[in-house]
Amino acid sequence: MNTDNLLLLCISCFSPRHAPDAPCTVCGYNESAQAESMYQLPPRTILAGKYMTGRALGEGGFGITYIGYDLNLQLKVAIKEYYPSGLVMRSATLSTTIYPMGGEQGELFAKGRERFVDEARRLARFRMLPGIVMVNDFFVENGTAYIVMEYIEGQTLKSYLTQVGGKLPAQQALDMMAPVFASLTQVHESGIIHRKGQKMAQIDYVQVGDYLLPNLILNEPPRELTEPITKYGAMRRSYLREHRISTYIILMKDK
Fold this sequence. Notes:
Blueprint: H1 3-8, E1 46-47, E2 51-59, E3 63-70, E4 75-82, E5 88-89, E6 99-100, H2 103-123, E7 135-141, E8 144-150, E9 155-156, H3 157-163, H4 170-189, E10 192-193, E11 205-208, E12 211-214, H5 237-242, E13 244-245
Parallel strand pairs: 9-12, 10-13
Antiparallel strand pairs: 1-2, 2-3, 3-4, 4-8, 5-6, 7-8, 11-12
């Protein structure tokens, strides 16, 4: 696919447009009306020679997630970039490269990036397990690391709850959560444990049925991993030292 054709792709759904500055007639996204980010990767950045970034889906303290496009397979993917806020900087208008802060912050960034890649390898083992979104690829580029995952279409639980009046019947809630519990059991048995859930607006989600639930893996800075998991004394610092803690997010889907 040549450069001119890439400019015609919508960066939200990757449907072709009739002109580079035209709104998408499929999803309605208007790229020209969006503010330019100073640190997110520019749209249409090519990663690993085959993945094109689209718009940012969301960001947290540990990374930025973009919708992406596999140029070889011509499929949408989700691309998570390791970008721990407070530990790195980037001027996206000048370069796609991330620059770690100096001193202790730089050391934390390097250790966190190593864990990020290692855990991508470990989570890839669950790619055929019902309930877990597949990790398709991971690589190091631009001074940081990336995980390429299956892209899942869906509705957030928050928006669904708004539609139904803010409540779910107990049995429906249990039915929706059952595949999440089953998947997390197997993840826990591998030595990766979850901490607390994130706010409902966070973009990385667990998907069960037709709905997306907030993820159950908290992506916190490495220095936080020395703190107790709960306030109730069940999991102390010694437990955290002896067990691996996930430093990013597991995405899950229905069977």
